[in-house]
Amino acid sequence: MTIKFHPDSATLMSFASGSLGEALSAVVAAHVEMCPRCAAEARRMERIGAAMFEQLAPTPMSSAAEPTAALQTMTKERPARAANRDEDTDADMPRTLRKIAGPELDRVPWRRIGIGVWHYPLPLSPGAKGDLRLLKVAPGQAMPEHGHGGAELTLLLRGSYRDEIGTFQTGDLADLDDDVEHRPVADLQDGCICLIASEEKAKFRGLMARLFQPLTGF
Ligand SMILES: [Zn+2]
């Protein structure tokens, strides 16, 4: 797998420091699982963050040798994900999603939301902001044009799509600002399945969007 598009460093830094929202974090975690380069970079950022934290945090004399609670949480929650891909490579559901999305992309209970477009919303913790869902698009099918409320991250899990920015293939992550409007078109042969997260609900435009919006809850 040759990955061409990665999260930008601000996104990766927020992820590594645990300050990225839950929906966006889920997408970055799935990318990091597939991308040794970002896995190494996230670990490097964590080490820097942990070292800074140790310097900044006042350490009571009695527990000088104890790792702080925050540091324990950081190291516990961030195993070396790049090494997590093992023999079950046929199951192309990212490991970090399996608890909420099931073991395989082919077994997702897709819901059709338009011609050639299916989705499966994924649950977030109670009170968590944003939106996380799997999206399946038929070959050659365009997604409705939309802008974003806040950042949006899209990770290609299978197939490919192209938009104004380029062609995104399996493992590629599109890290878009809220001023970007784009209209991805799925690969003519294979279509695509992606994991998509936004800080807010995406805002679709145009007639198709007006038809779409009440149905999808986007
Ligand atoms: Zn990467």
Structural account:
With 218 residues, this protein is an alpha+beta fold. It folds into 2 domains: 9-83, Arc Repressor Mutant, subunit A (Orthogonal Bundle), CATH 1.10.10; 95-216, Jelly Rolls, CATH 2.60.120. The chain contains 6 helices and 10 strands; from the N terminus they run αααααββββββββββα. α1 (9-16) packs across α3 (36-56). The radius of gyration is 19 Å and the shape is globular. The relative contact order is 0.18. The model is unreliable at 74-87 and 204-208 (pLDDT under 50). Bound molecules: zinc ion.
Stated plainly, the CATH topology of the largest domain is called Jelly Rolls
Ions and ligands: zinc ion
Q: Number of domains in the coordinates?
A: 2
What is the strand content?
15-25%
CATH class of the largest domain: Mainly Beta
Note the run of SSEs as H and E: HHHHHEEEEEEEEEEH
Low-confidence stretches: 74-87, 204-208
Report the count of strand segments.
10
- Structural class comes to alpha+beta
- Give a short account of the largest sheet: 8 strands, antiparallel
In helices, the fraction of residues equals 25-40%
What is the residue-mean pLDDT, rounded to a whole number? 80
CATH architect. name of the largest domain:
Sandwich
What radius of gyration results from the CA coordinates? 19 Å
Inertia-based shape = globular
Tally of helical segments: 6
N- to C-terminal distance: 31 Å
CATH superfamily of the largest domain: Jelly Rolls
